[in-house]
Amino acid sequence: SHELRTPLTVMSGFLETIRELKLDPTQREHYLSLMSDQSLRMLRIVEDLLTLSSLESAPPPQDQRIMINALMARLREDAEALSAGRHKILMQAATGFDLLGSEFEIQSAFSNLVSNAVRYTPAGGEIRINWQADSTGGIFTVTDSGIGIEKTHLPRLTERFYRVDRGRSRETGGTGLGLAIVKHALMRHQSQLEIQSELGKGSRFSARFSSRR
Ligand code: ADP
Protein backbone atom coordinates (compact mmCIF):
# COMPACT_ATOMS: atom_id res chain seq x y z
CA SER A 1 0.00 0.00 0.00
CA HIS A 2 2.90 2.32 0.75
CA GLU A 3 4.30 1.86 -2.77
CA LEU A 4 1.06 2.97 -4.41
CA ARG A 5 -0.01 5.53 -1.85
CA THR A 6 3.22 7.55 -1.95
CA PRO A 7 3.06 8.62 -5.61
CA LEU A 8 -0.69 9.29 -5.28
CA THR A 9 -0.15 11.46 -2.19
CA VAL A 10 2.65 13.37 -3.91
CA MET A 11 0.47 13.90 -6.97
CA SER A 12 -2.54 15.16 -5.12
CA GLY A 13 -0.26 17.49 -3.14
CA PHE A 14 1.04 18.99 -6.38
CA LEU A 15 -2.51 19.33 -7.72
CA GLU A 16 -3.47 21.33 -4.64
CA THR A 17 -0.41 23.52 -5.11
CA ILE A 18 -1.24 24.24 -8.72
CA ARG A 19 -4.82 25.01 -7.88
CA GLU A 20 -4.21 27.21 -4.89
CA LEU A 21 -1.04 29.13 -5.62
CA LYS A 22 -0.55 31.74 -8.29
CA LEU A 23 2.31 30.16 -10.20
CA ASP A 24 4.21 31.54 -13.12
CA PRO A 25 4.38 29.33 -16.24
CA THR A 26 7.86 27.99 -15.40
CA GLN A 27 6.84 26.92 -11.90
CA ARG A 28 3.66 25.42 -13.28
CA GLU A 29 5.65 23.45 -15.86
CA HIS A 30 7.95 22.22 -13.09
CA TYR A 31 5.06 20.86 -11.02
CA LEU A 32 3.40 19.29 -14.05
CA SER A 33 6.58 17.47 -14.96
CA LEU A 34 6.97 16.17 -11.37
CA MET A 35 3.36 14.98 -11.51
CA SER A 36 3.95 13.25 -14.78
CA ASP A 37 6.94 11.37 -13.24
CA GLN A 38 4.78 10.20 -10.35
CA SER A 39 1.95 9.04 -12.58
CA LEU A 40 4.37 7.06 -14.75
CA ARG A 41 5.77 5.47 -11.62
CA MET A 42 2.29 4.44 -10.54
CA LEU A 43 1.48 3.13 -13.98
CA ARG A 44 4.56 0.90 -13.94
CA ILE A 45 3.73 -0.44 -10.48
CA VAL A 46 0.12 -1.17 -11.44
CA GLU A 47 1.21 -2.92 -14.65
CA ASP A 48 3.74 -5.07 -12.77
CA LEU A 49 1.22 -5.89 -10.03
CA LEU A 50 -1.31 -6.99 -12.66
CA THR A 51 1.29 -9.17 -14.38
CA LEU A 52 2.25 -10.68 -11.04
CA SER A 53 -1.33 -11.35 -10.03
CA SER A 54 -2.11 -13.09 -13.31
CA LEU A 55 1.04 -15.21 -12.85
CA GLU A 56 -0.09 -16.16 -9.37
CA SER A 57 -3.75 -16.86 -10.04
CA ALA A 58 -4.50 -17.65 -13.66
CA PRO A 59 -3.79 -21.18 -14.89
CA PRO A 60 -0.76 -21.35 -17.18
CA PRO A 61 -1.70 -20.70 -20.82
CA GLN A 62 -1.31 -23.38 -23.49
CA ASP A 63 2.30 -24.08 -24.34
CA GLN A 64 3.46 -22.61 -27.61
CA ARG A 65 6.69 -22.76 -29.52
CA ILE A 66 8.73 -19.70 -28.61
CA MET A 67 11.12 -18.83 -31.41
CA ILE A 68 14.23 -18.19 -29.37
CA ASN A 69 16.20 -16.42 -32.07
CA ALA A 70 13.46 -13.87 -32.68
CA LEU A 71 13.03 -13.41 -28.93
CA MET A 72 16.78 -12.91 -28.44
CA ALA A 73 16.81 -10.30 -31.24
CA ARG A 74 14.01 -8.39 -29.50
CA LEU A 75 15.83 -8.58 -26.15
CA ARG A 76 18.93 -7.17 -27.74
CA GLU A 77 17.03 -4.30 -29.35
CA ASP A 78 15.40 -3.47 -26.02
CA ALA A 79 18.76 -3.61 -24.24
CA GLU A 80 20.35 -1.30 -26.85
CA ALA A 81 17.46 1.14 -26.52
CA LEU A 82 17.63 1.19 -22.72
CA SER A 83 21.41 1.43 -22.66
CA ALA A 84 21.46 4.24 -25.25
CA GLY A 85 25.04 3.42 -26.18
CA ARG A 86 26.37 3.40 -22.62
CA HIS A 87 27.18 -0.34 -22.56
CA LYS A 88 28.69 -3.02 -24.71
CA ILE A 89 25.95 -5.55 -25.38
CA LEU A 90 26.93 -9.03 -26.54
CA MET A 91 24.59 -11.81 -27.55
CA GLN A 92 25.08 -15.47 -28.28
CA ALA A 93 22.29 -17.90 -29.09
CA ALA A 94 22.36 -21.57 -29.95
CA THR A 95 20.27 -22.28 -33.02
CA GLY A 96 17.92 -25.21 -33.49
CA PHE A 97 16.54 -25.29 -29.94
CA ASP A 98 13.39 -23.28 -29.32
CA LEU A 99 11.46 -23.21 -26.06
CA LEU A 100 8.01 -24.59 -25.26
CA GLY A 101 5.94 -22.35 -22.98
CA SER A 102 4.11 -19.06 -22.70
CA GLU A 103 5.74 -16.46 -24.90
CA PHE A 104 4.33 -13.58 -22.87
CA GLU A 105 5.63 -15.01 -19.58
CA ILE A 106 9.05 -16.01 -20.88
CA GLN A 107 9.51 -12.67 -22.59
CA SER A 108 8.52 -10.83 -19.37
CA ALA A 109 11.01 -12.89 -17.38
CA PHE A 110 13.91 -12.56 -19.81
CA SER A 111 13.37 -8.87 -20.49
CA ASN A 112 13.24 -8.07 -16.78
CA LEU A 113 16.64 -9.73 -16.36
CA VAL A 114 18.07 -7.83 -19.33
CA SER A 115 16.70 -4.48 -18.18
CA ASN A 116 18.08 -5.05 -14.67
CA ALA A 117 21.52 -5.77 -16.14
CA VAL A 118 21.44 -2.47 -18.02
CA ARG A 119 20.03 -0.51 -15.07
CA TYR A 120 22.54 -1.82 -12.55
CA THR A 121 25.63 -1.54 -14.74
CA PRO A 122 27.46 1.78 -14.88
CA ALA A 123 28.34 3.26 -18.27
CA GLY A 124 31.22 1.51 -19.99
CA GLY A 125 30.20 -1.90 -18.64
CA GLU A 126 29.40 -5.08 -20.49
CA ILE A 127 26.22 -7.13 -20.73
CA ARG A 128 26.05 -10.63 -22.18
CA ILE A 129 22.80 -12.30 -23.14
CA ASN A 130 23.16 -16.03 -23.81
CA TRP A 131 21.02 -18.96 -24.82
CA GLN A 132 22.84 -22.30 -24.66
CA ALA A 133 20.99 -25.46 -25.55
CA ASP A 134 21.47 -29.06 -26.51
CA SER A 135 19.47 -32.28 -26.25
CA THR A 136 19.73 -32.20 -22.43
CA GLY A 137 18.01 -28.81 -22.06
CA GLY A 138 18.52 -25.09 -22.38
CA ILE A 139 19.89 -22.31 -20.24
CA PHE A 140 19.25 -18.58 -20.56
CA THR A 141 21.85 -16.34 -18.93
CA VAL A 142 22.32 -12.62 -18.48
CA THR A 143 25.74 -11.60 -17.21
CA ASP A 144 26.70 -8.04 -16.36
CA SER A 145 29.82 -6.28 -15.15
CA GLY A 146 27.74 -3.99 -12.95
CA ILE A 147 27.52 -3.02 -9.30
CA GLY A 148 26.91 -6.55 -8.03
CA ILE A 149 24.97 -7.61 -4.94
CA GLU A 150 26.17 -8.43 -1.44
CA LYS A 151 25.60 -12.10 -0.50
CA THR A 152 23.25 -11.30 2.38
CA HIS A 153 20.65 -9.87 -0.05
CA LEU A 154 20.60 -12.77 -2.52
CA PRO A 155 17.97 -14.96 -0.81
CA ARG A 156 15.50 -12.07 -0.61
CA LEU A 157 15.85 -10.50 -4.07
CA THR A 158 12.77 -12.16 -5.55
CA GLU A 159 10.50 -10.89 -2.75
CA ARG A 160 8.00 -8.25 -3.83
CA PHE A 161 9.37 -4.72 -3.41
CA TYR A 162 12.69 -5.94 -1.99
CA ARG A 163 15.43 -3.64 -3.22
CA VAL A 164 19.07 -3.36 -2.20
CA ASP A 165 19.17 0.35 -2.92
CA ARG A 166 15.75 1.97 -3.10
CA GLY A 167 17.07 5.23 -4.56
CA ARG A 168 18.93 3.60 -7.41
CA SER A 169 16.00 1.34 -8.23
CA ARG A 170 13.61 4.28 -8.39
CA GLU A 171 15.94 6.57 -10.36
CA THR A 172 16.14 3.96 -13.10
CA GLY A 173 12.38 3.36 -13.20
CA GLY A 174 12.30 0.22 -11.05
CA THR A 175 9.19 -1.05 -9.29
CA GLY A 176 10.83 -3.66 -7.06
CA LEU A 177 8.61 -6.28 -8.68
CA GLY A 178 10.78 -7.37 -11.61
CA LEU A 179 12.45 -10.37 -10.00
CA ALA A 180 9.19 -11.49 -8.35
CA ILE A 181 7.70 -11.61 -11.87
CA VAL A 182 10.75 -13.51 -13.12
CA LYS A 183 10.51 -16.05 -10.31
CA HIS A 184 6.81 -16.77 -10.90
CA ALA A 185 7.08 -16.88 -14.67
CA LEU A 186 9.97 -19.35 -14.42
CA MET A 187 8.19 -21.49 -11.82
CA ARG A 188 5.37 -21.97 -14.31
CA HIS A 189 7.98 -23.45 -16.66
CA GLN A 190 9.50 -25.70 -13.97
CA SER A 191 12.56 -23.48 -13.92
CA GLN A 192 14.28 -21.67 -11.09
CA LEU A 193 16.18 -18.42 -11.10
CA GLU A 194 19.86 -18.90 -10.21
CA ILE A 195 21.80 -15.86 -9.07
CA GLN A 196 25.54 -15.45 -8.73
CA SER A 197 26.93 -12.08 -7.85
CA GLU A 198 29.91 -10.32 -6.40
CA LEU A 199 29.74 -6.81 -5.00
CA GLY A 200 31.49 -4.37 -7.32
CA LYS A 201 32.21 -7.02 -9.95
CA GLY A 202 28.89 -7.96 -11.51
CA SER A 203 26.09 -10.48 -11.56
CA ARG A 204 24.83 -13.48 -13.44
CA PHE A 205 21.18 -14.47 -13.54
CA SER A 206 20.25 -17.75 -15.19
CA ALA A 207 17.28 -19.96 -15.88
CA ARG A 208 17.59 -23.61 -16.84
CA PHE A 209 14.91 -25.49 -18.80
CA SER A 210 14.48 -29.21 -19.08
CA SER A 211 14.72 -31.05 -22.38
CA ARG A 212 10.95 -31.50 -22.28
CA ARG A 213 10.69 -27.74 -22.87
P1 ADP B 1 13.82 -3.19 -9.27
O1 ADP B 1 12.64 -2.69 -10.01
O2 ADP B 1 14.08 -2.44 -8.00
O3 ADP B 1 15.03 -3.32 -10.13
P2 ADP B 1 13.79 -6.12 -9.14
O4 ADP B 1 12.81 -7.01 -8.48
O5 ADP B 1 13.97 -6.28 -10.62
O6 ADP B 1 13.37 -4.65 -8.75
O7 ADP B 1 15.19 -6.35 -8.44
C1 ADP B 1 15.26 -6.31 -7.02
C2 ADP B 1 16.58 -5.71 -6.56
O8 ADP B 1 17.64 -6.60 -6.93
C3 ADP B 1 16.93 -4.40 -7.24
O9 ADP B 1 16.34 -3.30 -6.58
C4 ADP B 1 18.45 -4.39 -7.14
O10 ADP B 1 18.83 -3.94 -5.86
C5 ADP B 1 18.81 -5.87 -7.25
N1 ADP B 1 19.24 -6.26 -8.63
C6 ADP B 1 18.48 -6.85 -9.57
N2 ADP B 1 19.20 -7.10 -10.68
C7 ADP B 1 20.45 -6.64 -10.44
C8 ADP B 1 21.68 -6.62 -11.19
N3 ADP B 1 21.76 -7.12 -12.44
N4 ADP B 1 22.78 -6.08 -10.60
C9 ADP B 1 22.71 -5.58 -9.35
N5 ADP B 1 21.59 -5.57 -8.59
C10 ADP B 1 20.47 -6.10 -9.11
Structure commentary:
This protein has 213 residues and is an alpha+beta fold. The protein contains six helices and seven strands; from the N terminus they run H-H-E-H-E-E-H-E-E-H-H-E-E. The strands form two sheets. It has a five-stranded mixed sheet. The protein has a two-stranded antiparallel ribbon with strand order 1-3. The chain starts with a helix and ends with a strand. Bound molecules: adenosine-5'-diphosphate. Adenosine-5'-diphosphate binds at residues 112, 116-117, 120, 144, 146-147, 149, 157, 162-165, 169, 174-180, 203.
Write a short abstract of this structure.
With 213 residues, the protein is α+β, with helices and mostly antiparallel strands. It has helices at residues 2-20, 25-57, 68-83, 103-119, 166-171, 178-187, and strands spanning 64-66, 88-93, 99-101, 126-134, 137-144, 193-198, 202-210.
Helix-strand string:
HHEHEEHEEHHEE
| First-to-last CA distance | 38 Å
* Rounded mean pLDDT score: 95
Category by helix and strand content: alpha+beta
Strand order of the largest sheet: 2-4-5-7-6
DSSP summary, beta strand count: 7
Please compute the radius of gyration using only Cα atoms: 19 Å
How would a crystallographer describe the biggest sheet?
5 strands, mixed
Low-confidence stretches: none
Percentage of residues in strands: 15-25%
- Helix content, binned percent: 40-55%
Query: What hetero molecules are in the model?
Result: adenosine-5'-diphosphate
Cα shape? globular
If helices are DSSP runs of H or I spanning 4 or more residues, what is the number of helices?
6
